Each structure stands twice: as structure tokens, then as C-alpha cells.
């Protein structure tokens, strides 16, 4: 089997109902809504072998993370407001009543603060998670939050990270061969050879963030007005750009219309497997990190998050399975994103393909210099948007 055959496709997920016997009375059920292709398909079969034969597994896919966040919001509405509504998921037609609430949902870390503040999710109990202490501190910090969703080292645990990736620079190796150099860090995006040869993400946080990083600042800097050099630097980068896109940034690179592109590691790793001309680099000065998490939907009923009801035994068992040593290798090899659990393991003990894949598993230096993008306050977000509009209209 090749790598693609192991990935969980939309149609496979929609049919992934692992049932046994007749009827479902008194049977344990685990309902999970997840981002499609984020879990290897064979993992469900392996997980099923660990369960009682009467257990029911129900996995449903969504194409986009924001779709899953909107579903959490929809579940939070009182049942009377949900009348007639359905899950807006391909191949699914289920009611949004509390009885159909999923046990676990994939959520991107960017939505975590809002999900907590809007009371869309419940905290997890780390004492039930066997590998919690092996989760790298950067990821433990990411999911420890207060009731407003702000980072808090004494806060509760609101999610279980199961894979992560980065923002990287992709480039056409054949186009750079005659130049005698290849992109190595963000600063290379300003080199004159890339004038009108660059694809950038249509995202102010990503583009302003990488520019801040080039100037020695944080992606999450909340004051831009005291950086007069930032605007000039962004204008210079804007002159390098041929286009801005968050979903079609790789097509011009494949066609040779652009020579380099800023994009997300999952997209670029998949493209590199199909086209040997595409190479990539994780900037050692640091980049944006993202992570996908398992979270517990809260549903419409008010719950005391200080003493929430425990997660189901099957939900805890699934998280522990995703964090098991065998599964983290499998997930990292087959889903174009690594498990954070790999970072605390000796790289020399990992399979050779993981040891040498600097995009899937960047250097320790690059990871240490990188950071998760956090939501901004509305006031600070408007300063980002105002600067973005000014740059784009120049």
C-alpha cells in the first residue's frame, strides 16, 4: 500500500461505522467529528481491536476546521433554536439534539480561546491521559487556559493535541539552480531575484507575522505603531508578491509562474510527494506553529467547568491510543503532520524517514524559535487589518 491509500478519505470516513451484533441498546458508543485525512484509516481498525465487541465507533469527517468550530457553536444553542437544523457535514444528516453530541471534535488551536470563552467545550482531566507527562511543555502550555481562554500555567487542560505543523517556504528547485542559492530563511523572500515571483498567504497574521519575525519580533506582537520600519518592510515584500491566496498558492508554483511560496506544511508535504521539483524549508529563525486538538463539546446545557462531568471512558481511551508510542509514529508517517509526542523522543530511535524529514519534523532550534499564533483583541486585530489594507492597496 502507498501512503495515500492509508489516509482517511472523506468517503471512507463517512462509512466508518464499526458495529457488531444486533441493535445498540446498552452499548458503549464513541462519536468523533474530525478533520478529514488527519487520522490514518487503519488506526480505527487497530483501535477497534482494543475494545469490547459491543462498542460502537462513529467517525464523521469535516473538510475544514472552521466548519467544526461552527458546529460547536450550533450545538451550544438551546434545543428550541436547533429545531430542524442538521449537521452540515458531507454524507451526514443527523439532528443537533444533545443526544447526538459528539464525544470529541477536532479543533485548531487558533479557535481554542474563543471556544473556551463562548463555553463551547469542556476541560479534560489530565490524570486520565496516560501520556500527558510526555507531551512537550510547549504543547502543555498551549492547552492550559483560564475560563476566558487565556494562557494560564495554572489553568485547566482544554484540549489534547494530536498533530501539528508549521508555516514554511516552498520553492522550485529547478528555478533556483542557476541562481546558486535556495531560500533558507524569511529574509530571503526580500531578495531581488524573487521580484514578482512570490506567492503569499492571504492572511495578515501570517504575512505580518513573518515580517515581524524577520525584524526580530514575535508573531503575536500586539503593538505595531511603535515599529516604523514594519510598514516599509511590508511594502517591500508586497512588491515581491505575484499573488495572495490561502487555498491556491501552490498552483502558480507548480506551473512555474512563481518560484517560491509561503504556505502550510501539510499542503506542501503532499505536493512534494507528487512533484520532485518542489522543495521546502522551515525557517530556523522561527515560524508559526499550528496544532489540531481533541476537545469535548459542551452542548447547550450550562456546566460548571470547575467540576465538569468526566469524559467517557471511550473518549479517554481514544486520546490515549492517539498518544501511544506506536500510533504517534504511524500518524506522523502517514498524515503529513507530526505528533508532538515525537519531540521528546530520541530522534536517532525514530524511523529513518522521520529522522531526515526536516519539514515534517523541523530542527530543535527552529521549533524553539517558533510560536503558536494567538487570537488578538478586537482593537489590536483592527490595527493589523488597517495595516494590511494599506499595504495591499499601495
TrEMBL record:
<keyword id="KW-0813">Transport</keyword>
<feature type="signal peptide">
    <location>
        <begin position="1"/>
        <end position="16"/>
    </location>
</feature>
<keyword id="KW-0732">Signal</keyword>
<dbReference type="Pfam" id="PF13343">
    <property type="entry name" value="SBP_bac_6"/>
</dbReference>
<dbReference type="InterPro" id="IPR001188">
    <property type="entry name" value="Sperm_putr-bd"/>
</dbReference>
<protein>
    <submittedName>
        <fullName>Extracellular solute-binding protein</fullName>
    </submittedName>
</protein>
<keyword id="KW-0574">Periplasm</keyword>
